[in-house]
Amino acid sequence: MTDTTHSTINLHDNSLSGARAWFERKGLSRPREGRVLAGVSASFARRYDVNPLVARLLTIVGVLVLTPLVYVGAWILMPKDTTGAAVAAATA
Fold first, then answer.
1. Close Cβ partners of 51 (under 8 Å, ≥ 6 residues apart)
2. Is 87 domain-assigned?
3. Tens of pLDDT along 52-79?
4. Cα separation of 18 and 13, whole Å?
């Protein structure tokens, strides 16, 4: 096993470089081989020693379950547009 040298970028830096350094340090990097789309699920599968098919299925289930929940949450939290009807009536 070879030693990897971590970059000198500050892991707490609020930039894309800092975020990428944090992911790299945690062992989450997208593989060049065996990936579908961008390789995010393959990265998690490799890091946490999970079958890549299982990781992909969990990703799909997560998207299908969480997306409607986020939409319903936004629906509940967003106020109704009270001036939109008046503006539409005035321009008609």
1. 45
2. yes
3. 899 899 999 999 999 999 999 988 988 8
4. 5
